[in-house]
Amino acid sequence: MMCNTRLLSFAFIFAIFSSIVSQSYFIDSNTVLVADVNGEITAATYSLIEDLLNIARRANVRLIIIELNTPGGESGAVQDIMNLLENSEIPVCVFIYPPGSSAWSGGTYILMSSHIAVMSSGTTIGSCQPVLPTGETVESSKYLNALTALMAHHARLHSRNETAAELFVKKNLNLGPEEAFKEHVVEFLADDVKTLLSKLEPLSLLQYRTENGTLHWRLLNSEESQGYSPVKRFDFNGITDAKIEEYTPGLRYIFLNIIYNPFVSSLLLIIGIFSLLLGIKTPGYGAEILGAICIFLALMAFGVIGIEPAAVVFFVLGISLIIAELKTGIGILAISGAICIVIGSLILFPSPKWLMYIGNI
Predict the structure, then answer these.
(1) Could you say which DSSP state residue 293 is in?
(2) pLDDT, tens digit (0-9, with 9 covering 90-100), for 314-333
(3) Beta partners for 216?
(4) Tens digit of each residue's pLDDT (9 = 90 or more) over 104-144
(5) What phi-psi label fits residue 11: left (phi over 0), alpha (psi between -120 and 50 degrees) or beta?
(6) Are the beta carbons of 79 and 113 closer than 8 angstroms?
(7) Torsions phi, psi of 126, nearest 5?
């Protein structure tokens, strides 16, 4: 019985890893990588975009397009994503899509930090004044001024309308695609990726240094861009013939997206506390281990513990439980250890597609 339990645990781990690795695919260099980011912005969204940028960099794709439709999200996750986009080695286009969707609040911050901003018909951006978890508007001038400056500075960095950027925060300004284009908040309008690429074809993206020494980005016609001496230059000639590859999130994002759901994280905390108490009252059935796992996942979702430290703890706990199983032969320890290792793997490892591009680093 003890041997069968151990074999079942190790077979379970092997099956999980096999299913993950089987998702890998190859992207050639003449490629546009498109990702769909839909729903509330959380740390799981940050994980997805981080994985997306890593894949794009290793595969040396020409352009990343993020199709964004969101009501907003967590301030910390939004700012982390903005930093990712600003430091991307490959141009990132944030495309408010599909038609009729929106990128309110945190979505507008992300749009403003992109190298290329595009909206489709009937979409909306704006309403960026922060709110508390209870739904009340933040009135602190210190916080509002900080976010206003953040939005305006990113707008300046990408040669966009700073006044409109400030009004997004101060006055909860909302703009449709026509108004956003007219006010120089977005570079152009499109209703699908093919149209977007055709409009991008005659353009070049330049990063140049201003007279005061700061760096700015600007999207210009290729002929007009010849008068600049850019620090970085990305030409998009021939991009309409590029292969369009859809990014598929790995198991890590799916798992984290579930865990970071407020209802799920609260439920995990409640289950964890009751399971821990039950395990202390009636030891030997594994309820205390289940409780500890649930509480730890809830603390990670609430931001008390970071994703990477949590993954390390799950790996260490899993290996320790399996070693304890070898000593005791209880059975439940091996299963618990296997579960901890699988959870640690889901938390730590991004989409396995990056394995295909190690040779390109």
Answers:
(1) H
(2) 888 888 888 887 877 767 78
(3) 208
(4) 999 999 999 999 999 999 999 999 998 876 667 777 788 89
(5) alpha
(6) no
(7) 130, -155
Element (H, E) at 3: helix 2-21
> What distance in Å separates the CA atoms of residue 163 and residue 183, rounded to the nearest whole number?
9
> Please, how many CA atoms are within 13 Å of residue 228, restricted to the half-sphere of its CB?
24
The average confidence (pLDDT) of the chain is: 85
> Would you state the torsion angle of the CA atoms of residues 334, 336, 341, 345, taken in this order, to the nearest 10 degrees?
140
Number of other residues whose CB lies within 10 A of the CB of residue 120: 21
HSE, CB side, 13 Å, CA atoms: give it for residue 354: 16
Q: What is the largest CA-CA distance in the chain?
A: 77
Residue 273 has a CB neighbour count (10 Å cut-off) of 14
With beta carbons less than 8 A apart as the criterion, state whether 340 and 14 touch.
no
**Nearest alpha carbon to residue 236 among 91, 48, 36:** 91
Instruction: Spell out where 237-291 has E strands.
Output: 243-246
Q: Report residue 208: phi and psi, to 5°.
A: -130, 165
- Residue 97, CB-side half-sphere exposure with 13 Å CA sphere: 20
CA gap 348, 352 in Å, rounded: 11
d(CA 350, CA 361): 17
Q: Residue 301: which of 325, 329, 270 has the closest Cα?
A: 270
Quote the CA–CA distance of 245 and 30 in Å, as a whole number: 10
pLDDT above 80 for 49:
yes
How far is the C-alpha of 341 from the C-alpha of 13, rounded, in Å?
8
pLDDT of residue 23: 41
127 backbone φψ class: left, alpha, beta (φ>0; ψ -120 to 50): left
Residue 14, Cβ density class (10 Å: 0-12 exposed, 13-18 middle, ≥19 buried): exposed
Alpha-carbon distance 93 to 312, whole Å? Answer: 34
The backbone torsions φ and ψ at residue 17, rounded to the nearest 5 degrees and listed phi first, read -65, -35
Element (H, E) at 101: none
Closest by Cα among 75, 28, 36 to 52: 36
Sheet containing 102-104: order of strands: 102-104, 124-126, 174-175
Identify the residue whose tokens are 């205390």.
288
Q: Which amino acid, 186?
A: V
Pairing of strands 203-209, 232-235: antiparallel
